[in-house]
């Protein structure tokens, strides 16, 4: 039963962090990112935030900027989400979306070759 509560809190924290990041005026934070998942520990002390950045050349700078701004984001999170403890934020880069795009491209490259082979038979 407690896992449902943690899941709800994780989702609420994800929405709040996404809104906070969108309101920040840091030039290192690009517009093509997504906060994909937040994992909050059971004791609500830590939250691992997974951020997917679609532009690879800006990804490292953005993750560094988010790590530097973690204190500010945590303070804003404390104002927006009513929890006993505001979790300490740990930002990680999520490569799942980029990997999915890569796999889709590989499948698109393979599909025309299969169509050509089927036409020859």
- Distance, first to last CA: 58 Å
Helix content: 55-70%
Q: What is the count of DSSP helices, taking H or I runs of 4+ residues? A: 4
Q: How are helices and strands ordered from N to C?
A: HEEHHEH
Mean pLDDT: 87
CATH topology, which one? GMP Synthetase, Chain A, domain 3
**Oligomerization category of the chains in this entry:** single chain
Radius of gyration (CA) equals: 19 Å
What does it look like?
- There is one protein chain.
- With 121 residues, the protein is an alpha+beta fold.
- The chain has one domain (2-95): GMP Synthetase, Chain A, domain 3 (2-Layer Sandwich).
- It is 59% helix and 18% strand.
- It is built from 4 helices and 3 strands; from the N terminus they run αββααβα.
- A hairpin with a 5-residue loop joins β1 and β2 (46-53).
- α1 packs across α3.
- The protein starts with a helix and ends with a helix.
- The model has no long low-confidence stretch (mean pLDDT 87).
Characteristics of this structure?
three-stranded mixed β-sheet; GMP Synthetase, Chain A, domain 3
What would a concise description of this structure say?
This protein is an alpha+beta fold.
